[in-house]
Amino acid sequence: MATIVVGVTGGVAAFKAPIVVRECQRAGHDVYVAATRASLDFVGRSTWEGITSRPVAVDIAGEGRAEHVELARVADLIIVVPATANSLARLAAGFADDMVSLTVLASDAPVVVAPAMHSNMWLAPATQANVQALRDRGFHVIEPASGALGSGDRGVGRLPEPEEIARVALGVLAARDQASNALAGRTVVVTAGGTREPVDPVRFLGNKSSGRQGLAIASAAARAGASVRVIAANIESALLATLPTAVQVTRVGSALQMREATIAQVADADALVMTAAVADFRPEAASESKIKKDLSNEEAPTIRLVRNPDILAEIGHSDQRPPLVVGFAAETGTDEEILAYGADKAARKGADFICLNRVGESVGFGDVPNDIRLLDARGNTAGRYVGSKDEVAAGLVGHMASFLDNLKR
Ligand code: C5P
Hints:
single chain, alpha/beta, Rossmann fold, 2 domains, 14 helices, elongated, binds cytidine-5'-monophosphate, EC 6.3.2.5, CoaB-like_sf
């Protein structure tokens, strides 16, 4: 039995939300209702209290403050039904001044959102951008249906049937339960971010890697029950703060520091996932003092580079390698070309899998969806994950869990 919080916002489709609550109860779950004030004009307190036999959470002032944190904490799943255009905007922007948005913001449970509104509002670029932002963050936004709308018009924007909403939401819950123990008892080391190779005390050679994909994998592995260690190269503190608190973080700067930390951390690990962008070269010797520009001389200094060790290849080929080693490769080119590069890289580096990240016009950079193929050393495609970094991470973690389980047998 799971605890489900149904968040109701103020749209005419709110009359269907009690059926979603009923369906969740019929599946054996414990349901709480959080409602915005505006929604009470559509479905009142007494309906909710009658169905759930408990008070409906509406007020966030006074004692309610503790209540919202409590609801957020106990929730295994949150369903926002109906979600108005206004509430989508509020969820996307991270508002927390009504019980629904506040519970969503304070919880790390999966969130299913069922929008319902007039077609024009649904199709408005602002709404579509908000929906995309929520999806990128891992929210499950159900597409509204087409048909008669509350306004009397016809078009897209209708709330899907409540039984269908409940079915999708319970599916999300089941997938989470399945994943929640998949890596229990395992130790996973994830390298993330990008190394910086010192030139002098104030300068470095670096790269653009934010560390987001690595942190998403670390979080997904932790959610799947693994004990997770992250080796973080130059990742913003605000991003690191999004990791579950149980994840152990070692901060490093350069490739050599990353090598040392990674070798130390993988000794007793079940898996290593090298998402970090490690510089292939470093200045031969970092100057001890800031390199000055010599105004009398037009010439620029020459910085001699030397090769960095390939951490993945070193660990992948060592006797003490963890049972599962995963590397990342960002490639451009045709499908055929990138598959060949990926397979070659897996074999060369002694990795069990290479996550091949197709980079190009619209995939792979910043916050946009990723398209990742998992290739084994023989060049076979073992999985393909398209979507937000969280969705890709969940897919990869699922694959890692079954790989490790199969080794045991
Ligand atoms: O050869 P390439 O840089 O494309 O390989 C990428 C993979 O190798 C990534 O998993 C990266 O973390 C790892 N790598 C490494 N040490 C290096 C360079 C890359 O471990 N010096």
